[in-house]
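Review box. Two proteins, two foldings.
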Amino acid sequence: MTMRGRLITLTLIALLGLIVGGCSRHKEAYYQQALCEQLGGEMEYRLPDRSRVDCLTDAYAIEVEFAKKWAEGIGQSLYYAQETGRQPAIGIIVRDTRADARRLHRLKRLARRLHIKLYQITGD
């Protein structure tokens, strides 16, 4: 095999690895469904303004987010709690413990202060 052929083969193998590796990661809806089923909640509860609570239980309005979107999760959980009369909660998906540590630390500090319940979900 020529040098060019080897390079093309290695490039294709690397691309295939990226594609397969990317496909093995679940989307947010996967974690949302798993958490909501575990808690016995209602998924995608629609509010009068057409926004949707990821999971609504008797006690909590839960927003499910990946750790990198932790700040958005705070706002959405507070809004959904206000609109449903439930307590705010966030299901935070942590895929990479080291990379997400700072985000999780910030979220935990604010969640304590704002009385937001946290469900930490370990991603794939």
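Next protein.
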Amino acid sequence: MTFIYRYLEDEIKDALEFMRVVAIVGARQVGKSTLAKNIAGDKMTYVTLDDTGKLQAALSDPIGFIKNLKRPTIIDEIQRAPELIKAIKVEVDNSNHPGQFLLTGSTNILNLPTLADSLAGRMIVRELHPLAQFELSYSSKLATSSTFLSSAFSHNPSFKYQPLSQEKLIDLVLCGGYPEALSLSETRRITWHNAYLKSIIERDIKEVVQINKTSELAKLTRIIASLSSQEINLASISRQLQLDQKSIAKYIASLEKIYLIKQIPCWHRNELKRVVKKSKVHFLDSGLLASIRRINKTKIAKNRELLGSLLETFVFCELLKISHNTTIDGIKETYNIHHYRDTRKNEVDFVVENADGQAIGIEVKATQTASDKHFANLIKLAKYTELKAGIVIYTGEDFLSFGKSLYAVPISALFE
């Protein structure tokens, strides 16, 4: 597969110029190793802990293993030997030279217990997700920053977008962003996704938490897939699996630590008195979600409603990547993504808040025509609290204004 320039490349290169340790974390098969090797070229030693011999040596003598490495060094899949973190800390405390270690990990490295005595001030951690559409839209380094959120928060929003056929959109949603899956036929892609899921449940999850009943975890994952873009009801899942709620909550947290899913909190402010403070869950790849739920183009052609929750997850995944990679006037912006629901049963799919506390509401509609009714909950939320804008992302072709700060935006605007 042709190398695709990743949004984190320049940021990682810069971090290596002033931080002693840099870590790239994210799910397996999202391109962490490829990115690390591309950044390093022939200037860094490469060690992977997927190599059984290297792993056993690292576990047997972490201090000796680190001391004997020729630096600067890439250590791939560091979560397999978390004991190395303390050894790295000792080494970098003896030298403040930047760029000594570039680590990759398939779990959130900050959750490893060995970081209780942390690398704070010595290490910077950056998340890499499956390929974003704005990365795939470009063949050059123009992909370092997306414009969607900066436009949405501007005084007079104006979005870039390209025409996108319904057939192409469905293909994008069903493919997702795992690099290896992109070039596969639909049948082979579904096979790849399910083999991937089986592998991380039977192997990787054990590196995060001690779980012996992987069959129950597999069942739980499929239940969560059926609930993606909804609130999680632990009591209901408990009845289905005959497991206590505490265990289910632990399993869900583990799936989040290995970047399979993400829980997004309900948005609230002091003036919002009737908020239902339950998180919603989303898979972190719409293609993987579709394969788990056995949804393909034929089924969507027969039942368009199947596209709905997949599309919301697809949009969430794009927003998440964009939220980490929007630069305005040379400064990286910070955004937090929430959902909104209150006791009046008003719901908004996403509320995105910037560092200044300004917020926009976003609804996702799998329809080619936007109408007033699609803005109903955004208008209600705007009555309770101030919104910078209310946006309906839909599958049509036109950017339309529906009143003051209300806009219907083609979904392809997320790709620019």
